[in-house]
Amino acid sequence: MGLFSTGNETPKQARANNEVLISQMDPARKEYVMGNIRSEQRLGLGFFMGLIAAVAGAAIWAAISAATRHQIGWAAIGLGFLVGIAVRMGGKGIDKIYGVMGAFLALLGCILGNFLTVLAITNIENGISVARLMELMSFQLFIEIMKESFQPLDILFYILAITTAYSASIRKLTEKDLQPGG
């Protein structure tokens, strides 16, 4: 379930406020309101926009990392936020599946960002074009690159990206959403 938010309370307080408002509705009204809110959900559009955000975020992350010649782990959090916002805007989802989808897409974006960073730095340091590197690429080589470039700290940044995307992907309900004609 999404969160009712006035902007001044903690997420826990907002969730409690939302549950109180929903629990106070008569069952027919509750079914009608939640049905209307769920009818606005668009899982496919949320996925598509989240995928575009994951690819764009990975490319931006790789460009920044290549320019500095250091893998910038904090960019993973930005990627997670970007993916989460895209899923929420496109999907308008209040159900947990939107958070799970955002988290999954953020993880894919992080993996792609790491991979593109390695390709971009290899391009700069060895003068081999990214296009040529992609021609030489195989699944086995991809796995080897990911193993070689993996750092234990990557786990922390992946987790932060995943949790950021999860929470940003789910639409927060407003009081207006729960009111008659909302």
Model description:
The structure is a single chain. This protein has one domain. The protein has 182 residues and is mainly alpha-helical. 77% of the residues lie in helices and 0% in strands. Helix 3 packs parallel to helix 5. The protein contains nine helices and no strands.
Shape: elongated
Strand content: under 5%
Count of helices? 9
Mean model confidence by pLDDT: 87
Distance between termini?
17 Å
Structural class category: mainly alpha
Gyration radius (Cα, Å) is 20 Å
Amount of helix: over 70%
Series of H and E elements: HHHHHHHHH
| Stretches with pLDDT under 50, minimum 5 residues | none
Question: How is the main sheet built?
Answer: none
Tell how many strands the DSSP assignment holds: 0
Number of domain units: 1
